[in-house]
Write a structure and sequence with these properties.
Elements: H1 2-14, H2 39-53, E1 56-63, H3 78-87, H4 91-96, E2 104-114, E3 119-123, H5 124-127, E4 130-136, E5 142-151, E6 156-161, E7 181-187, E8 194-204, E9 222-224, E10 237-239, E11 245-253, E12 263-268, H6 273-282, E13 288-289, E14 292-295, E15 301-306, H7 311-314, E16 322-326, E17 329-330, H8 334-342, E18 349-356, E19 359-366, E20 368-369
Antiparallel strand pairs: 1-2, 1-4, 2-3, 3-6, 4-5, 5-6, 7-8, 7-10, 8-9, 9-12, 10-11, 11-12, 13-20, 14-15, 15-16, 16-17, 16-18, 18-19
Amino acid sequence: MRLRAFGLALICAVAIPVGAAPPVAPPSPPAPAPTAAPASVEASRVALIARVARSVVHIKGVGEPPPPRADPFSGLTAKQRDKMERRNPDIFGTMIGDRAEQPFREEGTGFVYDSVNGLALTASHIVARAKTVTVVLADGNEQPANILGIDPDTGVAIVKLSKPGPPALPLSNAHPRAGEAALVVGRMIPLQSTLATQGMVMGDARMDESKGDAWPQLADYVGLDNFLPNGGLGGSPVINSQGDVMGIVSAIFGRNGFGHDAMTLIVPVAKLRPVLDELAATGTVRRSQLGLNVECPKSVCAVTRLDPNGGAEAAELRVGDTIATLDGKEVTGISQLRRLVAAVPVGSIATLTIDRDGQGQIVKVMTTAARPPGAGMTTDK
């Protein structure tokens, strides 16, 4: 009886009266419309690019022709050369080329950072070999410029406009942080207009020491995900969301040199003000050296050579000594040691903790001025 009553109650609970309409689910809320960037944000970005573009300049450097190329056929006899020329009359002109070498040319971007004195900042490789420099302003007018100073160690250079005029861009005092917006504004070869691309700071990108001395040795690179076509955008300013310059485009680093898989490397400007002031005043930057060469396998830096009459020799360091600390900071590699030495004022004492034959010692070395572009040490090959 109980079972029968339970079954009846269950059937009544789920039964639907004959002729009744099934229940209708409530309508779904409408899908939200896709959100677009506020018009004010886009307008602000457009206005920022227009403002920055007035300070951006196109830099054209012309230098001396490269050294004559060696003749790959110099070992051939006259008879052999004659035989080859009969088979292909153009072979020597094609392989050797015109012996009158063309002048060296390099073009890139720069920007005015001191409008009163007409000083523009760019990447050092743009003008490193130039003898004459021409600057093209945003309005298309050209004027000659002088190379005021080049610092290969940080990868920057200053050129002075013959006629100051473009407004200056402010330099940021903050190191770029991963996730920050990055706006690159520059002039691409051979276009006659200013181009802009927006991306993001990826983070610090210090180069591996195995890449050699071809890269600026004291540049604390920062990587961007901005896509930059190859040609003319080196030296471009990188603008943050406050409208300040946070870096200078130095290189495009990737598997093929450039392209969608490449990373844009910039030199941050936050710590460059003393370098720029010294470059503008003297045309060079004086940095300290210890007077020695080192190798640093497995993060242990061993002395491999002492410069005659250098500070390290005078302090009686020896080949084979390993350097543990400099002024209390641990030494872990060549690049880091270069930075530590460069931070010591020229002519002052650097205190080194070394290991010699298993015994720790403290040695005080008087620093001297390094010969540009090095910072006082190299890697023995």
